[in-house]
Amino acid sequence: MNATQPDLLSLLRSRDVRAVHEHLTDVQAQFEAGQLRERDLLDAFQPFNSSDLTLTEGFRQWMDDYPGTYAPHAAMAAWFLGRGWEARGESTSDQVSDQGWRALDHFLTQADGCARHATTLTDNPLAAWSVVALAGSTRGCQLTLDDVQRQAYPDWFTRGTQDNPASLYLRRLMLRHLRTEWGGSEEHMLTFVRQQQETRLLSDADIQRLWAEFHSHVSHHAMHFASDPAKGVERARMAADLHPAEAEQLFIALTGAKAPAAQRLDALRRYLSAADQDSTITPRGNFAWALLNSGEWTAPEVPRIAALLTRAAGAGDPDTAVTLGALRVTHPTWPLPDALPLLRAARDQGHTKAAEMIVYVHMLVRNPTPSELLQRRDDTLKAANLLSGPMSWEVYRHFEEYERQFGLEPRQKFLYLHRAADGGENDARYALAEQLRAGLVELGDDGVLRPVNTVPLQGSLDYARHLLERASGSGHRASGRVLRATKDRDWQAATARRIRVSPVHGVLRRMADAGRGQTPRVPWFLLIFAVIGIVRACAPDTSSSPRTAQEFLRQYGEQEKADPERMRLIERVAAGELRPVLEGGTVRFEPVTPK
Fold first, then answer.
1. For residue 426, what are the CA distances in angstroms to 193, 476, 548?
2. Is 526's pLDDT higher than 50?
């Protein structure tokens, strides 16, 4: 948002839709009259690319008060797109939950329909075409290389560039659309950039920006999909030399390639300097990953890192608030601002990851007081009600505590079990699959999970198998063992036998509570983050740091007995033998090379 633009989201929340409508309508008119740059127009509509649930009633009133007009349709289309990405999350596609895929499809359909209608309501609907482009890219690139060579591009690009022949933004969107991981290829992108250079419609600076982003996209794919760190670093260097903002990708690539600290620090400084000079530069998801895998050599730049993240979070980017929360865990001695106010603001707007991070931060409090435990459960329930899989699982596993504190109905226990499994929590997928196979629960046509006591229906067996396949596909070993041990007859209602299960199952079974208010299990990735912080000596005095996995778990109030393999992993991390690396929301381990 530029300095002269009012806070449109605040106005919309307060139902001052007239002010919002008049401002955006005036901006659109100035743009169509050639009095406003493309960037200024897009900046005006950008705040609505949000998942903020508090905007719902404002949008409803805006549509009622100004039917058939461009501004509310273009803004609401961007909002639908934001809600779709919020539901999907930033993980790789194999980690997206069933609930995430359904919600994404629903909101993409809404975004595309609303945006396409908006394109009929004004002369130059650039903001609406951008939503059509982003919705289409989210579903994947359908263009063949031959299509690109013939310039048979989608309507959002052809019609958008007819109205805006020198649009850098539309060309950046198309380049992003042609990325290899979205169904295009390096050749797709190379062909496209060469075409744009040959048209001579763009300035030399804009063409240089396109080439920078081309190399950056190639670097990203090489690092995260092709396991080619050398190519990733090479292309990232080329991108950073062409445009300062791409030093971010260089920092990420050097981190992935385990480059010397001095090189990584230099790249980080180049990126931070670019962000200092251009307030529109905001960090991408993998920037957080690179920071979380940084050592104490980053310390001199922590003030600038904190300023950048705080600026982005304050401008409405909830993901940077989550990054701040994670950094407070992994690097406890860094002078970072308190992330909780930003996280609570993001949670109040419906951001699930922010709600989860609030709980994760609370989980590492040693010896919590009774009031802190009550607050932790309150935060956990709020996250569960935002469809968090892990937090719904916590509510289900300790339902009696939540039932007492919040007056929940007994039948809601099954709601949270289903929500946890549907939200991608693998232990919940396993537990629900077991109970479906045991004939203890059924999923009705209305999507509500209910307790029963009967031979499992075919639909229950089909859903159980699906849950186990999803869990196994994302690394859940117990689910994989069940799938390998079962025969086809075990999945047919006519021949399947009811299995016997305990009330709550999971790979990590909670030990019996020693009393009321015991600490819920610390998420696996939070354990790893905390161990990283200990092993890398984030604190000045590490003499009291836990030296074994068991000591670590005791120190942080953990009451679970992990399976031997997982405990051994923690021990090897704590001993400095293995190094955990976070990639796309999952953790892998690699040996530590002695210095």
1. 42, 6, 26
2. no
Q: How confident is the model at residue 330 (pLDDT cuts 50, 70, 90)?
A: confident
Q: How far is CA 21 from CA 65, 74, 118, 312, in A?
A: 10, 11, 14, 25
169 and 135 Cβ atoms separated by less than 8 Å = no
222/232 Cα distance (integer angstroms): 5
User: How far, CA to CA in Å, does 515 sit from each of 401, 511, 559, 583?
Assistant: 11, 11, 11, 37
Strands 578-583 and 586-591: antiparallel
Strands (E), 332-378: none
Indicate if the pLDDT at residue 583 is higher than 60.
no
State the burial class of residue 277 (Cβ atoms within 10 Å of its Cβ: 0-12, 13-18, 19+). exposed
* Collapsed DSSP state (helix, strand, coil) of residue 583: strand
Helices and strands (DSSP H and E) totals, the chain: 30, 4
Instruction: Tell me the C-alpha distance between 206 and 196, whole Å.
Output: 10
Whether residue 467 contacts residue 486, with contact meaning beta carbons closer than 8 Å, is answered with no
d(CA 136, CA 182): 10
Query: Crossing angle, helix 302-314 and helix 318-330, to 10 degrees?
Result: 150
Q: Which of 290, 329, 338, 288 is nearest to 310 (CA)?
A: 338
Tell me the two tokens of residue 10.
């605040």
For the entire predicted model, the pTM comes to 0.82
Q: Shortest CA distance to 498 belongs to which of 460, 445, 466?
A: 460
Scanning 486-593, the segments in alpha helix (DSSP H) are 524-535, 549-555, 564-574
Listed in sequence order, the residues at least 6 apart from 67 whose beta carbon sits closer than 8 Å to its beta carbon are none
If 0-12 CB within 10 Å is exposed, 13-18 middle and 19+ buried, where does residue 144 land? middle
Neighbours of 279 (CB within 10 A): 14
| 17-59 per-position pLDDT tens digit | 999 999 999 999 999 999 999 999 999 999 999 999 999 999 9
Question: Is pLDDT at 315 greater than 90 in this prediction?
Answer: no
- Kindly give the pairing relationship between strand 449-451 and strand 441-443: antiparallel
Evaluate whether 576 touches 548 at the Cβ level (below 8 Å).
no
Residue 451 tokens, joined: 């307790």
Q: Which of 103, 583, 587, 585 is nearest to 387 (CA)?
A: 103
Q: How far apart are the first and last CA of the chain?
A: 47
pLDDT the model gives residue 367: 87
